[in-house]
Amino acid sequence: MSNATASFPVDDKRIINGWAMFDWANSAFALVITTAIFPGYFESNAGEYVSFFGIEVKNSAVLGFSISFAYIIISSILPLLTGIADYGRKKMPFMKFFTRMGGLACLALFFFVGESTLWLGLLGFILGVIGFAGAQVFYNSYLPDIVSEEKYDQVSAKGFAYGYVGSVLLLIINLAMILQPGIFGLDKLVAMNPELFGESPGALAARISFVMVGLWWIGFSQITFNRLPVEQGKKLTSDILSKGYQEIRKVFGLLKTMGPTKRFLIAFFCYSAGALTAIFLASIFAIKELGFETQELIMVVLILQLVAVGGAYLFAKLSGIYGNRNVLMVILLIWTIICVSGFFVQGKLAFYTLAAFVGLVMGGVQSLSRSTYSKLIPEGTKDTASFFSFYDVLEKVAIALGTITFSLLDQHLNMRYSILGLAVFFIAGMLILWTVNSEKVLRPASK
Q: Would the pTM of this model clear 0.85, i.e. be above it?
């Protein structure tokens, strides 16, 4: 059975591929901006300490606090937006709005050239994170609309695989620009107008990479916007705000009576604080603690992304044999081992090995979490955006908690304790996930 509404064709290959292309489009932001290039660029263009809301903060910690700030903002408004989206059947307009916001924020990062424009760099980064996170919730909510339940795991993994492959392709182009800026004529641009293009061809290549992410994100998302079915919604009226809150309250009331779903969301909150914080901030750890250069870091990220493609499909396959919950438990155990190992890691080779394991479980934890929650939503549900609002808001509050914890430990101790502290979130997630006994996530998928 499907949760899809009548206006949404189910298991249509063209629609599914179009849906997955949004991962191809927006994953470039997660990879290039938050992980591979921007952290190193920010660290080299900001002072050792940055004034963050009047407090002197390590430049490595300020990125974590910026992510926390962005996710607090988006988590505070998403319940309202998704309630409105379900009542008015307006998921697509919100998805487009946040996509454009994020893409334009990436374009603005081109003008971040040093401490004098640090405010622009932080503002562009924060708005980019808000756009990325905001669009993601509406994208996720389409999964139970367009796919039958027995295909949730495979299609969810397909979306993440598209994202990994697409973002890696763009990152390879960006890496070529950074390593060989002369081939792309960037040295001539710098010589022609150093005030606009800066004095370093390599730095210019990084700034052009930010622009390419914005264009990539906005451009490829048009495939998704054109292929997803048009919702037949209600006309928005003056009482839409109260209607939106009514949708949220209705779903909240349902969740309180759904024991397995509620326990899964609590477990998801705990381990997301660990996993997503590690994904966001592992690169700054490599730069500050292990002395990685931008080129080396990009190579680490490429390894991580390529392994993640296989990991997403591997764990989707295993979930069909052993059930979602059991496979998620194994993934969280691996995450815990990674965090403990990260506390002791010294050489770059050891970090490369850890990065490979992070890639393996990164795709699995995100893909299986999304599909597991889709299975736990009652069949026939029409207001999937409101249900996914709770899922995504919990994820975003978890990211805020995780990044704040990471940054505070970094500020007062060092990042090795930040990495070790994340293990607590995974252990808590495992203990709570063990109590989720729904047959839908314990038994193998139907053949």
A: no
